[in-house]
Amino acid sequence: MTETELKHVPEDVSVVAEPSHDAEDRLTPEFVTGVLERVDSGDAEGARALVEPLHPADIADLFELTPSDRRQALAAALSDLLDGDVLAEMNDYVREDLIDALEPHQVAEIAGELDTDDAVAIIEDMEEDDQRAVLRALAPDDRAAIEEALSYPEESAGRLMQRDLIAVPEHWTVGDVLDYLRGNEDLTTDFWEVYVVDAAHHPVGCCALSWVLRTPRSIAISDVMAREQTLIPVDMDQEEAALKFQKYALISAAVVDQSGRLVGMITVDDIVHIIQEEAGEDILKLSGAGEGDINEPVMDSYKSRVRWLIANLATALVASTIIGLFEGTIAQMVTLAALMPIVAGVGGNAGTQTMAVTVRALATNQLTQSNTWRTIRREIRVALLNGATVAVVIGIGVALAFTNPQLGAVIAAAMMTNILIAGMAGVLVPLTLERYGADPAVASSVFVTMTTDSMGFFVFLGLAAATGLTG
Amino acid sequence: MTETELKHVPEDVSVVAEPSHDAEDRLTPEFVTGVLERVDSGDAEGARALVEPLHPADIADLFELTPSDRRQALAAALSDLLDGDVLAEMNDYVREDLIDALEPHQVAEIAGELDTDDAVAIIEDMEEDDQRAVLRALAPDDRAAIEEALSYPEESAGRLMQRDLIAVPEHWTVGDVLDYLRGNEDLTTDFWEVYVVDAAHHPVGCCALSWVLRTPRSIAISDVMAREQTLIPVDMDQEEAALKFQKYALISAAVVDQSGRLVGMITVDDIVHIIQEEAGEDILKLSGAGEGDINEPVMDSYKSRVRWLIANLATALVASTIIGLFEGTIAQMVTLAALMPIVAGVGGNAGTQTMAVTVRALATNQLTQSNTWRTIRREIRVALLNGATVAVVIGIGVALAFTNPQLGAVIAAAMMTNILIAGMAGVLVPLTLERYGADPAVASSVFVTMTTDSMGFFVFLGLAAATGLTG
């Protein structure tokens, strides 16, 4: 199936062998230290010599791995290497740090080199005054493009798209397209598909470059193009656009405005970051860790996390109040106090399992109205099996350890009930939040934990009281 | 910045207006029901008419949304639409379901149409006997390609790559490349870059198709190609390959064998699924939810989840034992039993936050040896702030509610301590697991929860006992 003959080569050729990287393609601590030592000793030349061979993404990593109080010195030493490509690859917080120290005209110079989407990413987080100063320092056409992009909502396709693209009229032949591409110096080289548009600049098809290359010059482009193409509305949320790229295995997609005109293009390399971010975000949201970025300033992390801890405190008070109702029962048999966290804890874990599955299925559009009831029934079945297993284990264990079969039966029944409740809460809470337009990843955890804690204590202590358990 | 003039178009053109899809590009329940009703009433023709306009990814979704006991009937009605592209897009479990019902020669027919990587995805999960039967029924060259792919480890680049690619010698001109592409009917059309190889078939550069198209025929391809290219070793884990695609914004990458020869190509559309899966996996692993797929058979979900619940039960017993040590203290003041889950619970939440951040930072290669200590110090600072805030709130609240300042002081001190311990456990547990080669997402949760539960109870009850608190 390969296109050319494979010939035997005897010697072993090491494929990736830069000493600056470890086996997992991360910069080594020795390399980072080496660069910073040269910067500290005033050897900017030596630092530059080390860094110059690196890919812009690695230079961005180098800044991220440098302690924040030494980044300005590093930037000064490497100033000519710190270009737009490096900034575009950089973590938002680290970039803001560096950008803040630059003059507006320096930022404008960097932004002018970049595609619209990368320029917007650099400018959108600046203070309004600084932003205006940078925009004023830009060339008029770059400025217009960036201002238009900034007019779209944050995290929308309009912010993400680049306006440089190749659009050709539908009556052209493949030869016309080839001549146009080769004859116009100013055209972008960063494209993978050609869009075919009608007289009103509405997309009517798209054509992968491999098709342009494999087709004789005389054939009409409209005979080669794919007529079915995924169009991204300019105000579509970036997460939805990312799901489309994934679902339809797109390399690039045309972005259209409200009237259906072609206004830009999104390429998959910009989307890959979003897919990765959005998929990874759920875990951070579920745990209440906010942005969850290790480069975030401490005070920002504190603010986003403490809110959830306070919310958690409030739900813990509910559970505590429930325990308070049974103080008389506990006073009669203190062992109950030692056993009750088991029922609540394992129930909480079971709820978290179901919740994680449900949140992922919702995020990837796998769970829709068509299979909601089936999924709920499925989770209840799993919960029944899990509950039965854990209940038998803990029931027998407690009955033997305390030589108290009644205590064993109570904890087994409570465990079974709580795991079942956990399974239902784990699927119903995210579904309900989604139904009412809330992000299921953000608030599910608080409600599910409150349910499993409260019900765990209530069922266990309630059963103990009702069956007249005493030590 | 756009390449062609934009003309004003008055009418509003709706971009995506298929009634089969809802606003988020999911199939509507009405559509799914409509298809299944036609299948049930024997109207295969009508079902096919509804489904035919759909993209293969949507047909795959239709099968996923259909209850498992009706999928065979749907497959029978739509047999001619159920081709390799649809199967390649389908959820693994749903596909296995369908494949199991097909004869080996039918599977072979489908696999023969596909790229190697998609064919491998279909065949690799089959029982060994069935797999052999399918391989026997394949054409010899397809069979050889698939057998070679299957010889690479699961989840490696070798399984993921396609062997159809365009490789050209370095002495060719752009014109030679164009003539070669246009003159050979058998070449693949699924490529975005041309690889340039030396006489030993080692890659020496790559050239995006846009560069081939924008360059005059007479120029040597070696003057246009990029000499720096990311090579993927054939045995590299797919997750690592995905990180490379993301870091270097790749569209496709050459895969090389141990001796450095070009043996295949991976394109970004195959990688996007992996990035999404791997990033989403962490949340499922952390919660102990196994594969976490809503299409997984109930017994498989049960088996993967119950293991973690039993592990959680074991760690809950540790916490329970610690409480048991203080039964005398609790007997003197039963209120302690009602308050102690607050200390453990909020501590657990704080630990989960830090753990989620650490696991994500490790998974995305943001946390390396160079910034480990900085990250630990950072998390301790956040924990001190969080701990102080929550301690003040709960301390004052409890002191007032129970008119017992000493009790308030004890719970505040315990909360502060436990949140600090939680912050350290949340970052140190995943780091330690990673250092010893374990997947930090898999086992971190159990250890962190055990720490925060046990220490929460121990510190709170221990302080209460030590300070001689009584009701």
TrEMBL record, chains A, B:
Q: Does the keyword Transmembrane helix apply?
A: yes
What stretches pass through the bilayer? 308-326, 338-362, 383-402, 408-429, 441-466
Q: Which domain of life is it from?
A: Bacteria
Localization in the cell: Cell membrane; Membrane
- Keywords for the protein's UniProt record, in alphabetical order: CBS domain, Cell membrane, Magnesium, Membrane, Metal-binding, Transmembrane, Transmembrane helix, Transport
CBS domain residues: 225-283
What SMART domains does its record include? Answer: CBS (SM00116), MgtE_N (SM00924)
The identity of this protein, by name, is Magnesium transporter MgtE
